Amino acid sequence: MNRNLMSVARKALTKVHNPNSPATNNKLFVAGLSWSVDERSLKDAFCSFGDVTEGAVRILYDKDSGRSRGFGFVSFCKEDEAVSAKDAMDGKALLGRPLRISYALERARGGPVVVPNGGR
């Protein structure tokens, strides 16, 4: 494997696993959304866990059909609010479909996306 790629991956994993890292993980990736879920209903489902930041609920839509792609993001003001929302809502049904929730990963343009395995 390319040495430069290994170096970038190692740095990214160090940052992900470093408890002293200043970056907080208050953004959740929410998968398994029904086509009928809109941003308002997604925000309503999560706002009981804490302050959802303004404009921080986003559902991605297919550019051709205009339908939801079945996933979105919810950002909280505080990391502990995101943790309790993830713990409480992962696997719970929203409009008849079970949600799969994980922490969102920040994408660096042009760089590789390193996905931590979560200890599995």
Proportion of residues in extended strands: 25-35%
Tell me the span between the first and last alpha carbons.
23 Å
* Quaternary structure classification: single chain
Q: Mean pLDDT score, rounded? A: 80
Structural class: alpha+beta
Order of helices and strands: HEHEEHEEE
Task: Give the helix tally.
Answer: 3
Query: How does the overall form come out from the CA principal axes?
Result: globular
Radius of gyration: 16 Å
Major sheet size, sense and barrel closure: 4 strands, antiparallel
Low-confidence stretches: 13-23
Order of strands, widest sheet: 2-3-1-6
**What is the number of E strands?**
6
The percent range for helix content is: 25-40%
Keywords: RNA-binding
Pfam families: RRM_1
Protein name: RRM domain-containing protein
Short description:
This protein has 3 helices and 6 strands, in the order αβαββαβββ. By secondary structure, it is of the alpha+beta class. This is RRM domain-containing protein.
